Amino acid sequence: MTPTRGTYVLGLLLLVTVAWVFAVSLIAQASRVLAAAGLSAGLAVILAGGVMTLRTSGAMPRVRVVDVVMSTIAAAATLYLCRVLEVPPLVASALVITVIGVAVLPGGPLDIRAGMAGYTGGFIGLITPNITLSWHWVMLAGPVAGVLWSLISPSAFVGVGGRMGATAFMASVGVYQAADLLGERDIPSLLPPPGGLANWAVVPIGATSALVVWLLMNRLGWSLPMASGLSSLLVCGGLALWGPPAVAVPFATAWFGGNAVGAVAAWRLPNAGWVAVAGLLYGVMILRFQGPLQGHVGAIGSFALMGEFGTIALRRGLQALAPRLPGQPRVS
Length: 332
Description:
Blueprint lengths: L4 H23 L5 H22 L10 H19 L5 H15 L8 H13 L10 H18 L10 H19 L15 H23 L4 H19 L2 H18 L9 H16 L11 H23 L11
Helix pairs in contact: 1-2, 1-12, 2-12, 3-4, 3-5, 3-6, 4-5, 4-9, 5-6, 5-7, 6-7, 7-12, 8-9, 8-10, 8-11, 9-10, 10-11, 10-12, 11-12
């Protein structure tokens, strides 16, 4: 794969987005100078992994109409389930993604690129959890996400999960800002303040979710929409039915983001051990996730992307120190 100038522009846009989410949510919230310094070093490692990954990206394609349409339809479907039928947000998104998973089965009407555009739109439809933003704002963000994903999907950071969430985040940021200017936004936190059992539990939950999706994709051959949608429908649906909100919301959120970590291609992270590392790194980051970006659509997916970038950088560093480390990558 050979990245083009457009690919580098898209990649840098994603990296800036990731850096901004990390800095605002973690570094700016650090209580001590030493903690901020450590987090800054962590961000440097994550960005290093992103740069390594960008070097093996592909050429930027043209926008496909079907990708824009699928993102818009998925956003509208999730929005309808949440606001009209009052289905719990993550359950609604999982249901829409599962339907998309059926549509991308062999012989189905969608290819995987269009299906992933729908996956991205399924996040857009979650604006906002407490139904404070008018529906037309959501419908504006849907096609924007479709355009971005149509460009990003086969080009920037191919084989890395979490790109869908980061794409949804980018598409929704402008909508959030415009709504803010007009006084129409009041988004609550998806995660409660740090310090409870539910919060510590998000670390193993995120790692478990990543492993489940990775195994379904790499051992059973499931597509990401099917693996993520069906597993999240079962887990998030069960939590919504039987768990108190203070526990169910952070658990379900951690699981959904872990799905994105598990979407990493085997030629990026070659075995379940490295996927588990990425899942744990993601879980540790969302454990401390706080500040003004809580509740923003796609923020959790952005942390999934960071978890993979950081693990890729760690793996490359270990390989540099130990050239005979098993599982050498296929690409430099």
